[in-house]
Amino acid sequence: MRGLWIDEKTFIKFTDERTSLTEELATRKGAIDFYSLGMYLPNPDPVLKKQGKDITVYKELLADAHVGGCITSRKAGVLSLEWSIDRGRAKSRQAKLIEKVFQNLNLEKIMSEILDATLFGYSVLEVIWEKLGGYILPKAIVGKPQEWFLFSIENELRLRTKDNFEGIPLPEKKFLLVQHEATYQNPYGFPLLSRCFWPVTFKKGGLKFWVMFTEKYGMPFLIGKHPRGTSKEETDRLADLLEAMIQDAIAVIPDDSSVEIKEASGKGSSADIYRQLIEYCDTQISIAILGQNLTTEVKGGSYAAAQAHMQVRKDIIEADKKLVEKTLNQLIRWIAELNFGGTEFPVFSMWEQEDVDKALAERDKILVDAGVRFTKKYFQKAYGFEDEDIEACEVPQQPQQFAEVEKQDSPFPDQQAIDDAIDAITPEELQAQMEGVLKPIIDLINESKDYNTVMEKLINTYPDMDTKAIEDMLARAIFVSELWGRLNAES
Hints:
- The chain has 491 residues and is α+β, with helices and mostly antiparallel strands.
- The chain folds into 3 domains: 45-216 and 283-351, no CATH class; 356-396, no CATH class; 406-490, no CATH class.
- The protein contains 17 helices and 13 strands.
- The strands form 5 sheets. The chain has a 4-stranded antiparallel sheet with strand order 3-7-8-9, with no helix packed on it. Strands 6-5-10 form a 3-stranded antiparallel sheet, with helices on one face.
- Helix 3 (65-79) packs across helix 5 (107-120).
């Protein structure tokens, strides 16, 4: 009996001798809901199927001003990020080569074409390789029109040509395929522009009728009057004069005719219907592309709502960033496999420069204040500096203005004079000073907790001395006490 033991008690029996657990059983070839006249899979997008068109219908939506603005905003969130090549466990030579390759590529254009996958469901970029020295490296990466490609019933990407409408297989390491929310049922991915199709369509219709409404009711009506019994020729001639008057504001009419100007009133509420329709369509477009509308349609709202919408925007940027990272890391693997082999590759990553710098800078400042000194290599790794961006130097001295403030707050205004005095006084001379009149005062200072307590005890001890003399004596005692401490520390 053919089958597979899962454990000691469980045995799976194969009812069909041709079937095994390692084979794919549920495929399109045997599915009852799949019908195809050829060997390729049609795009199952419902909008395209209903319109009977291909993906080029979505490219026409890019002409809409609001759609274009939302797309620019969404892409800018990713294109503004910083990027680097993290060497990880890969060899330094590999990482440096790949960094140089990426610097020579038009990376901003490549990222923008990668992000087109979110708009059209998928995007395809062709890698143009060249032999440079002993390496095979990408010379250029070019985004190609989506309508040139299709998927086979096995979900394999194919290139449609004039000679082969069903598509030809593609060579390995030649085309980068980017898919947005693709599934087995729909390898073409989910295009965000499909959500914009009907809002843009209704918006165009509403704008067209709004223009017609404005032409009709935006200008006053001219009513021409002529005597009863006037011939049709004279009536038509008066109508032509009134039509010309709309453009030139000049008309010549018979003296027995008259012209009345009548304003169109009460039509403001009717005009608002068209405005509301267009604004509603723009809101739907913003939500479809950006996930929210507050960052593009500022009409007031609470601070909490604004923060929530900004968080939605950040989440979308994070998802798009991962799409770019995944694609470019695929390119890095191809470069490494063609030139180095092995299984350890450098990694392309993106981040928001301001957030990373702020967190690292705060942490590094604390460590520096604690006495840590970082190397040049650390700054290159942590902050992405290049070799020529920084150079090793001594920790800068404290600015003069801050030094002056400290001098004013210190009880010894001239630090250099103090240092000179320390060098000039010998321990024997200082011992004589300490055994003199200052020793009782210094003992009193050591027994007291603060300056006010010392002053109070000195006034009680020397009631006949004025406050100025006591302050001078206290300053001298503190001076000698500090010198004594320094000399003891040096010895």
